[in-house]
Amino acid sequence: MVIGLLPKVFSQLAGTKDVWCWKATSNGKYSTKSAYACIEEQRERSVQVLLIKNHLVKVWGAAAPQKAKVGAWRALRNRLPTCDNLKRRNIPLDEVDAVCSACFHHNESVNHLLLKCPKTEMVWVEIHRWIGISTAQPQLINMHFESFINLGTGKENEKFLTALWICTVWQLWKKRNECRFDGKGWEPKNLNKDFEGHSFGFDAFLKKCEC
Known about the structure:
Layout: H1 2-13, H2 32-60, H3 66-76, H4 83-88, H5 110-116, H6 118-131, H7 141-149, H8 155-182, H9 188-193, H10 197-210
């Protein structure tokens, strides 16, 4: 069928003049500005890819439960089955089901559920209070991870913060599933108790994340 169409295509092209077309602009004409924009876009993509790879190496090497590391890896890759990702897979969802099960005001996505949701933000505020560092929190999951693990200085602090970030994300995801599938309410105060290191220590916190 395709081969049969070729003579028609070539007959339409016969007698036409070949021209150069620059795809980076709407009019097809080259400009230095558009070329620079293309280079910057490629550079940003390369940096982003390297950053994600670096994050994944740190996640898999962290001293955290395997389930928590898998959850964090999926979050950083935007592979968690949040409502927006389910829609992309053509899985039908009612409007009510697509809403965040914590705040009931915004559509659920990885960035909203784990970072932007007001109830989630309360948890991160408590985490920062616990470790004694207050700082602005990025609203994109990879940027948040990068910022959080670099709050301290030295390799040991980075290892601790990496494990803490992983386990926090895992706890938030588990809490989301309890709300959505078990009908439990989202109680940030109760959830925050799981992060109080002064009451049971970090080892116990890791054990909690295993279940």
